[in-house]
Structure formats: C-alpha cells, structure tokens
Amino acid sequence: QITTLINHKDKPKRSDKTLQAIQRVGQAVNLAVGRFVTVGEAIANENHELKEEMSVACIEARRAGETIAQLTDVASLDHPESDSHITIFTDKTGVVKAARLLLSSVTKVLVLADRIVIKQIITSRNKVLATMEQLEKVSSFQEFVQIFSQFGNEMVEFAHLTGDRQNDLKDEKKKARMAASRAVLEKCTMMLLTASKTCLRHPDCESARINKDGVFHRMRLALEQVIEIVTDSRPSGENEIAPISIYSGIKEFKNKVEGLRENLYFLSKENLSTMLEVILEHTEDFTDSAYTSHEHREHILELSKQAKMELEQLVSVWMQAQNQKTKDLMEDLEVAILKTCQCMNELKREVHSAATSLATDLLKYHTDHMVLKALKITGVEGNLEAVAEYTCKLSEQKEQLVEMCRLLRHVSGTEPLEITCIHAEDTFQVTGPQIISAAETLALHPSSKIAKENLEVFCEAWESQLSDMSLLLREINDVFEGRRGEKRVYLSLPRPGKHNTNLKALKPVKLDTEEQAKIAKLGLELHLLTSDVDSETEKWEDQENEIVQHGQGMSSMAYSMYLFTRGEGLLKTTQDLFHQAEIFATEGTKLSSALHTLSDQVHDDDKPLLLLEAEKLNSMCKQLQITAKASAQGKSATFTKVDACILKTRNVMTLLCQLLPLCCRLLRKKKTGNGCLKPAPPWKEDRIRTGTNARTPERRVDTFGIKSLENHVTNMTFLESK
C-alpha cells in the first residue's frame, strides 16, 4: 500500500475513482498502524523496563500513520492543485518521509518485542534450572512428587516458548540445533522422572546415582544450547567452530575450480591445493575406520590419488593460461576443469556409498534389539556376570553406531542434516552408558519395579534413536539423489473444499503398467533434467536468491512427476499429477517475473536474451496451465493429457537448464564488479506483494500479544521490502 502511494503516476487528470482509491489506501495504512500500535502499547504496559522505549516508537508510528492519512485525504477535493490543503499531489516528499518514519518506528517496536520474547525464554529457563536444583536435593518421595509436578508445568511452558521461537528462526542451521536441543529435553524429562525415583528408592546404589547425574547433566547442556541459539551467543565469547564435511568441502572446491572459467586470477594455486588436502584428510575418517569395507577403502585411496594428479594437471594448464590466453590453452583448461570435477564427483559418490552401506547394514543388524532384551532379562534375574557380558556388547554396538553417525555427517548434504547426525552421535554416546548404569542397578536390585521401569525408559530412547536413524538415512539419500521435493510444502494434494470446486466430480485414475511403459522414456528425460537443474542451483553462492528458490521448487515438483511415471511417490492419481502441473506452471510464472526484475538491472548485451528467455518461459508455463486445466473424458483422452503435461514440463525444465547458468553468470559479474548490474530500486513492489502472502502461517497468540503483533504486521505489506 505504501509503495502504491509513493509510485503513483502524477497524471494531470485525476478521476474521482483515482482520488477515492488513494484515500482508501491512506486510511487502510492508518488503521493498520493503529491496530499495530495498540498491541505494542499493551506489550509496553506489561514490561516496564522497556515501556519508555516502546511507547516512543509507538507514538512515532502512530504519528506517521496519521500524516499519511492526512496527505491522502484528497477525495473531497475537486481541484487539489488550487486548494491550500497540502496533499500527496502537492507534497509527495512528505509521504516518502512519513513512510520512512513509519518503517523505522515499526522496526523499533518489533525489535523491542523480540527482546521481550528472548527475555521470556531466559526467565523460563531459569525457573526450570532452579526447580531442577531442588529435584536433585530431595530426599523423600512426597517432596519429589510435589516439586516434579511444578517442574513438569515449567517444562511445558518452556517447550511452547522454544517451539514458537524455532518456527520463527530463519536460519535452517539454528532451527536444526534448536530442534535437537528440544528433542533432548523432551526425552530427558521422562528419564529424569524414573532415574530420580530409582535413586530415591535405592539411595546407597552408586550406579543409580551415576544414572541420575547423567540425565541432569545432559538436560543442563541442552538448556544452555537453547539460550545460545536464542541469544546468538557462545559461552565465554567462544566462536562456534563448524565441522567441515567432505560433501561441503567438495562442493566449495568444485565452485572454486569452475570459477576459473570466469576469472583466472581470483585465487592462488596454494588455496586450491590446501582445500584438496583438507578434503583428503577427511577421507581418512573412512580409510582408517575399522567398519569400512576393503573395497570401499581401496576405491577411496585410488580416487584420492587421482584427485591429486588431476589438480596438478589443472594447475599446470592454469598457470600457462595466465601467461598466454591462446585458444588451445583455454580448451586444455576446460578439459582439466571437467576432469577434476568429475574425479571429485566420483570421490563424493564413493564416500556416500561407503557411509550409507555401513548405515544400512548396521541398522538392519540391530533392528531386533537383542542386546537390550538380554540386558532386561539378565537384570531381572540379578545375573551380574551376564549383565557385564551384555554391557560389553552394547558398548561395541555404541562404538559402531557412533562411527556410523560420524561417516554419515560427511555425506549428509545439508547443514541441518549434518547437525542431526551430530545430535544422533551425541545421543548414542550418552545413552549407551546410561543404559549400562540402569542395567547394573536392576541387576543389584532385581525385584525393584522402579529400577526395571527405569531401564525400560532408557532402552526405549535407544530404540527410538535407531528408528530416527532410518529416517535420517532416507533423507540423506534423498538429498544425494535429488529427491528433496518430496518434503516441500508445495507438494500439497487436492483436499475436499480446496483448490478446484469440481474435484469431487472427477474420478481418480491411475496409470496401468502398459501406460507406464509408454511414458517411461519421457519420465526418464524429466529425471535427468531435474538432476541437471539441481546441479546448476548448487553452483549458486546465494542459496536464498529468489531465482534459485523457484528453480529448486520447480525441480522438486518435476521429480515428483517423474516418480508418478514409475507408479511411485506422492502423486497417486492422474488428477494429482494435473494439479501438480498447475502448481509447477505457477512457480514458473513467478520465476519469469523474477527474471524480468533481474533484466531491469542489466546493462550489457545479455539483456535481450534474458528477456526473450523470460517471455518464452512465461508462454510455456501458460500453455502447461491450459493443458492441465483442460477436461479429459475417458481412458485414452486422460493418458493423452498426462503425456502432454509431462512433455510440456520437460520442455520447461530444458529451458530452465539454460536460464540458471545465464543468471548465475550475470550475478557473478555483479559480484566481481564488472558493472553489469545497476542498483535495485528501493521499493520492490512485486516482491512485497508476493512475499507477504508467502508467510502467513497460523500462529498461537501468547500472553504478551507477540503473535497478534506479527499478524498485524502482515497487513502492512511495505515491511517486506526491508
């Protein structure tokens, strides 16, 4: 709305319709500001330490909203230019100033509100810690029950607050860390109950005390990590050292190597050599592991040796090309780049195969939980010797699973999955010894129901983590094979009362075996194109770029359509496929719009080509939408429509493979300062309009009214330009 006011055209003739529209926009802005400020003032009244700052920001916002309403009060003016009343037509800079003041003051309110939320989480954590200290010192069951009841309520409150915060986090890495910490707290709450009860029942038992202390220690670490994430800080000013995985190392190395095509001088040969050395050092985690097969070890060592040779050849040609740029040398450089990247891809594939093969075998081997069952039986029998034997076997199993997690982290593919692997490793490291201490306690007190229940709880945590590892392994394989799309939100299938109103009248149809065979070739082509697009999007340094986001989304949806041709995936019927094709086409139209925005910033010779490709994409997506929406009666007509939808999707993906490198090249030029892009305009209307609608999830309103504040902000669409 603000953008509409600022960018309105100064036409000499102003119709009544235009004047009324301007006034309506001004009034809507003022009303939205009023609602927003009311919530801000309520928050100020509940938080006296920030009341003054919040009140000042609210007053500024209200004043700016009223100024905008006054300047847009033009509907009653027949001749605004001759009237002494100041309006948007006579003082456009006034609207700009008011809009800036509004943006500034609203941002202040949001920042202050965020500080209150952080303070709320810290206060809740402190209450939990204080109650935990009381729980550690209790000596009677009656006292323990009373305090644990209070502790439970405080943990529920903390869970709600941190859950809301996790949803609000933009950084996927922080979100994964928060999820891991909250999972620890959730599981440890039950462990704390049974471990404490066991300790109270058997106060002189050393293994029971060790078991309880381990739970309390782990909960304190998880609580501390939550606060680190919320406050974005580390204890004693330490910097977080991110573990480097082989996957991310190879990705960065390849980007640098491929960057030589654009610029021969942007890095030194020493940098490339160092990067490769770091990658090869990490491969030693595989070659030194006792659980890596002989075949995998030999292949990894062979590929490591080959990678060094390919880099030496690349450096040799690269140094020559720096001195003399001949056609032959540039061709030799291209060959060296391709061979180096191919070798790194093979190395990545080999370590991925080694890690996932080990994980598959271990998870399959341990699904029967024989060691845990044996510990429960021997513990109840009071057989200390047998318990000692099985605890040794559990320790071996723990070492295997920890090693599996370490190797999977190297090939996890994304930072959130990498963090999940680290969390799994920690869980096995900690839970293993806790099961052992719980089993020893039961063996010493075989008739104790509480000791038996305690062992059950820790064994369930172990089994649950093994089950989670199966899901994690599947996700790692999905990322490696480009199947990320099956977890994206826009793969929503038609539901009653949503999307098209005529869906109930359509009978869902599946492809039979013969039809799947006919369309298999087309599906395979689509699969290869999704891999190409994923490969192109991985080359972008800015993974949050709008063009990359749309490209990844389209690739994910195209992959689900390929799975449909095989009778697999989430799309079960032809109607599901047609609906997916419509969403795919809509995403393509949005990408076309983003390309137009980019073309407005381009000065060089690529602009006509970019515009031409953008128009071509837009046209192809419209054709796909028409095809997907067209009615088809009968089996033959339905199959023809399926064929046409996948064919047109394939054509769009082919074009996308050409567009992504072009856009990447233009943005790289901008980064290296070649001046091919001019500064983006300060008010991005399209982005504002689309961005606001994209982020409006239903939120729970909390006692401080923070969520109400956010809901009102979504109505003030100009904020999305920030």
TrEMBL record:
Keyword Secreted (UniProt): no
Pfam families given in the database record: Vinculin
Key word rRNA-binding present: no
Single GO MF descriptor: actin filament binding
Similarity field: Belongs to the vinculin/alpha-catenin family.
Subcellular localization(s) per the UniProt record: Cytoplasm
Superkingdom as given in the UniProt entry: Eukaryota
InterPro entries tied to this protein: Alpha-catenin/vinculin-like_sf, CTNNAL1, Vinculin/catenin
GO CC, one annotated term: cytoplasm
GO annotation, biological process: cell adhesion; Rho protein signal transduction
Protein name (database record): Alpha-catulin
SUPFAM superfamilies reported in the protein's UniProt record: alpha-catenin/vinculin-like
Main localization of the protein described in the UniProt heading: cytoplasm
Keywords (A to Z) from UniProt: Cytoplasm
